[in-house]
Amino acid sequence: MSRPSLAIRTVIFSMVSSVFLAAIKFLTGIFGNSYALIADGIESVVDVFSSILVLVGLKYAERPADENHPYGHGKAEPLITFLVVVFLVMSAATIAWQAIGNIQTPHELPKPFTLIVLGAIIIWKEISFQIVNNRSEKLKSSALKVEAWHHRSDAITSVAAFIGISIAIYGGKGYEVADDYAALVAVAFILYNCYQIFRPALGEVMDEDIYSDLTEKIRLISVDVKGVKDTEKCFIRKAGMKYHVDLHAIVDGEISVTEGHHISHQLKDRLCEEIPELGNVLIHVEPFVPLSN
Predict the structure, then answer these.
(1) Left, alpha or beta for 251 (phi > 0: left; psi -120 to 50: alpha)?
(2) In this predicted structure, what is the pLDDT of residue 2?
(3) pLDDT at site 228
(4) Domains of the chain, CATH where assigned
């Protein structure tokens, strides 16, 4: 299966999971008198819409390079990530507003069965995080990283809800608002995760130099290619699931232009063969100048 296809299947898995969990949370929250669970359900609904955006972004990013986009359409991924962050901030604001209103309004204690439902949700969301996060690492996809953190964020808010409901149930009358305070704690975690998602996506759009491990790997492979004496500059920028590389390779200054051109093609082919996630690789040939005595 191709990398884009695997990424798309992963997003669909997340989306279906969020739909079922949102329904379970809303029903349990309504019948179990728990606003923390309803708040959790709101986040799951936002996750569904976010997954749709990510899916659209991945589909668009998969489009091949054309005359107007010589490096492809991969930058759509971080741009979609920004939109997803906006959705998450809006959901956090909605949850906070409702929780503050509930704190000021007396209401019934949550039902004990809500804890059983929350325990199952926490386990499932953490499993989902591990699955999606592993695929995001494998595919080097910022969009899938967003999807993974949706699951981790959901698991954390569910833990907060579990603690709040437990305090409310075992504390009894007068502790009903513990459930609502748990929703506010969940909001803080959501906002923190928004930053965790936003920061790397911003670095990708700004072509930030954050790929030292990949740079080192490129240099080691390069000097193993016949005719390449060393490397100089190595610039890397990420677009979607591809890394575009500008590399200065040092070769013998006495060889012909044709020989230098041949070495650069051998180097490019070797790099693309050993690092499949590379996209455009531009090799600039520099002449080797021996140190004079």
Answers:
(1) beta
(2) 66
(3) 93
(4) 3-205 (1.20.1510.10), 212-288 (3.30.70.1350)
